[in-house]
Design goal:
- This is AP-1 complex subunit mu.
- It is found in: Endomembrane system.
- Belongs to the adaptor complexes medium subunit family.
- It is a single chain.
- The protein is α+β, with helices and mostly antiparallel strands.
- The protein folds into three domains: about 140 residues, Beta-Lactamase; about 130 residues, Immunoglobulin-like (Sandwich); about 120 residues, Immunoglobulin-like (Sandwich).
- Helix content is about 15%, strand content about 45%.
- The chain has a ten-stranded mixed beta sheet with strand order 11-12-15-9-8-27-25-18-21-20, with no helix packed on it. It has a five-stranded antiparallel beta sheet with strand order 2-1-5-4-3, sandwiched between helices.
- A hairpin with a 5-residue loop joins strand 1 and strand 2.
- Helix 4 runs antiparallel to helix 8.
- About 10% of the residues have low confidence.
Length: about 450
């Protein structure tokens, strides 16, 4: 019986601690869990184990906090319930009591305890007396006191004896933007989730240090620790230089030495797995003040059987960046026929089975505008109630959907300051860094 991921959630379901071991369960499982558990609690039907969509949820509730394990392996789930109770006893042994404050105040130590008690999701040692021999209450750094590898499984994710003729390391910072925009251009909702992906082909057992820029803050940390970490983040020049990059729901690969964040606040130290892996995931905590790409559409009635849609696309990011593969899906009535499209740039295609006009732009610079005029015919006889009006015209039925990719750009402002690779043989390494922001669910409502 193994865990795919473990969470500690507050009473509203917000993430305090999260460690993903296998990457085989979606991040949305937390939302499924809290929805179902809150519903069941209202009905006094609480169950510590339940299944939904092929995922087994195992949880206990202590001091108003949820300790949750999710797994694809549904057999012997009761063993994970036992583990959660034992793990909570370990935390009580370290901190005296369990509360949201004690969890936040001991953010780093808890991650270390998780890594020692769940080796790649497999339950291990849960005896506090044994754990305290090498995980000290004051979080002594790994360099000061290191437990034997056989005990801790510290590099269980990387075999020894790896050799490459050419040593290469790729780092990708990828952010996905979900946004809903009202007809007047204001933001209804926004969500930015990011990940740092790495692909390493490195000989031996290298030690890596990856530095974030000066204004990133992990808001999961306690207030005192967060203060000392305020230098981990995005350095801006000129106007806007004081903007911090607040990250929440932060989760690290188990290879990360949490003590490195605590001691320096500027770099992440780790011995990487071989090949591709996810180093870190996060959510940008600040709502976006404006759209990245805005779309304005207005429909006019030309005659009783002919309509025109005027669409304006505007990119609101800085001109030094270029959006690629921009696709604007413009809904039209189900009974549309004989459409004609006149884009100022790019190309258009009518997709009748989806009742949309698909406007595609290979690329467009930041701070630019593009327009598209669409005309289409309608049957001469239509049910009046099917037609909504905008002034003298009819409205588009569904929101406009937009997709895009913006290379060399992060919405949050997170940047990598440096990547150092140290291995005892001193070989040379080629490192590559890419940033990419892309749309998730990006919709624009209209008049």
């Amino acid at each position: 019986m193994s865990a795919s991921a473990i969470y500690i959630l507050d009473y509203k379901g917000r993430t305090l601690i999260h460690r993903d071991f296998r990457g085989d369960v979606p991040s949305a499982c937390r939302l499924v869990f809290i929805r179902r558990v809150l519903e069941e609690e209202d009905e006094l039907l609480v169950k510590p184990i339940f299944h939904e969509m092929g995922i087994t949820y195992v949880y206990i509730k202590i001091s108003g906090l949820y300790f949750l394990i999710v797994t694809r392996d549904g057999e012997n789930a009761s063993l994970l319930v036992s583990f959660l109770y034992n793990f909570s006893k370990v935390l009580k042994s370290y901190f005296g009591f369990i509360s949201e404050e004690s969890i936040n105040d001991n953010f780093v130590i808890i991650y270390e305890l998780i890594d020692e008690t769940l080796d790649m999701g497999l339950p291990q040692i849960t005896e506090a007396s044994v754990l305290k021999e090498y995980i000290m209450h004051d979080a002594v750094s790994v360099e000061q006191k290191v437990a034997p590898v056989a005990v801790t499984g510290a590099v269980s994710w990387r075999p020894e004896g790896i050799r490459y003729g050419k040593n290469v390391c790729h780092v990708d910072v990828i952010e996905k933007v979900d946004m809903s925009i009202s007809a007047d251009g204001s933001i209804i909702s926004s969500d930015v989730r990011g990940q740092i992906m790495m692909n390493t082909a490195l000989t031996g057992m290298p030690e890596l240090k990856l530095g974030l820029n000066d204004r990133v803050r992990f808001i999961n940390l306690s207030s005192s620790d967060a203060e000392s970490h305020s230098s981990v983040g995005t350095r801006k020049s000129g106007k806007g230089s004081d903007r911090t990059v607040d990250l929440e729901d932060v989760s690290f690969h188990q290879c990360v030495r949490e003590s490195s964040l605590r001691s320096s606040g500027k770099s992440i130290s780790f011995i990487p797995p071989d090949k591709e892996f996810q180093l870190m995931t996060y959510r940008y905590a600040t709502p976006l003040p404006k759209a990245i790409v805005s779309v304005n559409a207005h429909t006019n009635k030309i005659s009783s059987t002919r309509e025109e849609v005027a669409v304006q696309l505007r990119t609101l990011f800085k001109s030094r960046s270029v959006a690629q593969v921009v696709v604007v899906s413009i809904p039209v009535p189900l009974d549309t026929f004989s459409p004609t499209m006149h884009p100022s740039v790019g190309s258009c295609m009518y997709v009748p089975d989806k009742s949309i006009i698909r406007w595609t732009l290979k690329q467009i610079e930041g701070g630019s505008d593009a327009t598209c005029r669409i005309e289409y015919s309608l049957p001469s006889v239509r049910e009046e109630e099917e037609i909504g009006t905008i002034g003298e015209g009819t409205s588009i039925r569904k929101p406009i959907e937009v997709s895009f990719i913006i290379p060399y750009f992060t919405v949050s402002g997170l940047q990598i300051r440096f990547l150092k690779i140290v291995e005892k043989s001193g070989y040379e390494t080629q490192s590559y860094l890419r940033y990419t922001s892309r749309s998730g669910s990006y919709i624009v409502k209209h008049h």
